[in-house]
Specification:
Blueprint: E1 5-6, E2 9-10, H1 14-24, H2 26-37, H3 40-56, H4 67-90, H5 104-107, H6 111-130, H7 133-144, H8 149-156, H9 160-181
Antiparallel strand pairs: 1-2
Amino acid sequence: MVSKQIGDRPWRGVADEFMERLQQHQRYLFHVAYRLTGNAEDAKDLTQETLWQAHRKSNKYVYEKSLKAWLRTLMTNRFRDQKRKKSLNFVTLDDAFIQSDPSPATAMKSVEEQVEQKILLERIKEEIQELPDIYRRVIILRHYHGYSYTEISKELDIPEGTVKTQLFRSRKMLKERLSRKI
């Protein structure tokens, strides 16, 4: 097999060059992953998974755009997907807006404040259940499951603009309903 020469360097495949470009951003990706996961081992895993995914999806990368930004987006989406999958196994829809474990801020509140907060969360949950179906679905996907506008659009098979409109209207409706009852 004869290798082509460009100057003193043998010609390499586009995939090898792309992999080298990916490796140049490995340290940056690790720092982003560490901020997302808060743990070095999980950050290493997320970094490697992101690099592997980027290599597999190299044909989808638009070379005029920032590779760093594209990698960060891949990583963030992968992290969200992993987090969503883990949370779906442990949380039921009924518990969507009620915290099962008190946060550190909650522990500092008085018992009366904690009870008031729980009552308010119950009211919010009830009001969400009373919303028309089109509004309830987007609220739950956005605020409970953490879906992006694009993900909600794909999940419900509606345009992204419609998702934004429905979220705006549902939040406004919730605010009006809650202000009447409080």
